[in-house]
Amino acid sequence: MSIETIVIIGAGQAGASAILELRANGYIGKIILVGDEVHLPYERPPLSKDVILKPEETKVEILSVQKLAELGVEVIRGNAAVKIDADTHQLILKNGEVLGYDKLLLATGGAPRRLPDLDALGKHVYTLRNLEDSQALVPVLQSERRIILVGGGVIGLELASSARSKHCHVTVIEMGPMVMGRCSPRLLSEFLLAQHRQAGIDIRLETRITGCSLQGEEVVIQLENGEELRADAVIYGVGIIPNVRLAVEAGLDVDFAVKVNENCQTSNPDIYAAGDVATQLRADGQYSRVETWENANQQAGIFARHVMGIEHPKANPAWFWTDQLGINFQFVGDMSAAEWHVRGTMDISQGPASSFILYGVSNGIIVAGITVNAAKDMRHLKKMISKGIAFHADTHLDLAQELRKIA
């Protein structure tokens, strides 16, 4: 069957990447991009960093009006999709417009997991998911302001770093025993914790909030231990909820996210999903969801190649990065590796001058790697993991050995 029309719901990273991949691989049919935001597709990683720190000079747009026109894409902005009729291959928009499709890609991302007690305060409480959220924080994060961040994950720590760079007084409240506990080994988590505390950020681990209120222009947070914290603003980031309503109502197979096979197909072969909204069948036979920039791009590429009947390459080891306190951290592979080994000097006192590598090893094989201010070495770690190289301490930890020669 010839594919004449592809509709993409979601004008984010996955949606934009799908467009580029389709055209790059020779798709000449119609592409319609549907976005509920008024913006053209834009990058999300800078929202917690450069958009706040350098708002005037930071550009986040992925595809311009001109580029989309060159690619022959019909763009619908600020008009959300409200219903998929899988039987008739039609998509209904908020304004009542009906679009027909041959293949459909769900790239609807996710929404912040809500904390209703904080939301109820309204004033001085913020989350971060889109460009408007980030722009709203620019006037909030000003020198000497007292900022409480709820959640010590990647976004929470990046925002803590940004707020501290703007000379705010910052407190981070984390329920768990580690910062970045879902995506970082303890060794690196402890290094991150020490760096933030050294920068003057007050991080509270294993801490629960029992109450919150507004008192004039202050937000008051009560902790389980009876302590009371006061702030000029509270920002929370405690994960996301995939935007699956369209998929559920269309009768697709959904657990927490939209289940897709290795080709990013949902339970309906003409509907695909990619990015934060999708939980994919992996090589180990398990379904998992990955919230990274690279995963959105990778799944978009899988979708584009599959609808065109082109074989897609084997998935790369999971990779993501974060920039905090002037330090670049890059992660690849299985962060639950059984043991970790340090190449170089893991010296907390060096701050932004820190530079070292961590190997994650399971059953004698290198299954993960982390670079700290050593981005140039990441490609060698990726190669080691893809090849399943055995770890040898005398070689891999020897700084006289070039990584490119032992990868």
Overview of the molecule:
This protein is an alpha/beta fold. Helix content is 24%, strand content 30%. The protein has helices at residues 13-24, 50-53, 65-70, 116-119, 131-137, 154-165, 186-198, 245-249, 293-307, 378-387, 393-396, 403-406, and strands at residues 5-9, 30-35, 73-77, 81-85, 90-93, 98-100, 103-106, 110-112, 125-126, 146-150, 169-173, 202-204, 209-215, 218-223, 228-231, 233-236, 240-242, 258-260, 271-273, 278-281, 287-288, 319-324, 327-333, 339-345, 355-362, 365-372. Strands 3-2-1-7-19 form a 5-stranded parallel β-sheet. It is globular and about 60 Å long. The model has no long low-confidence stretch (mean pLDDT 95).
Beta fraction = 25-35%
Query: For the report, how would you describe the main beta sheet?
Result: 5 strands, parallel
Mean pLDDT: 95
Low-confidence stretches: none
Strand order in space, largest sheet: 3-2-1-7-19
Rounded to the nearest angstrom, the distance between the terminal CA atoms is 44 Å
Q: List how many beta strands DSSP finds.
A: 26
Specify the helix fraction band.
Answer: 10-25%
Keywords: Dioxygenase, FAD, Flavoprotein, Membrane, Oxidoreductase, Transmembrane, Transmembrane helix
Protein name: 3-phenylpropionate/cinnamic acid dioxygenase ferredoxin--NAD(+) reductase component
Transmembrane segments: 356-375
Domain FAD/NAD(P)-binding: 5-300
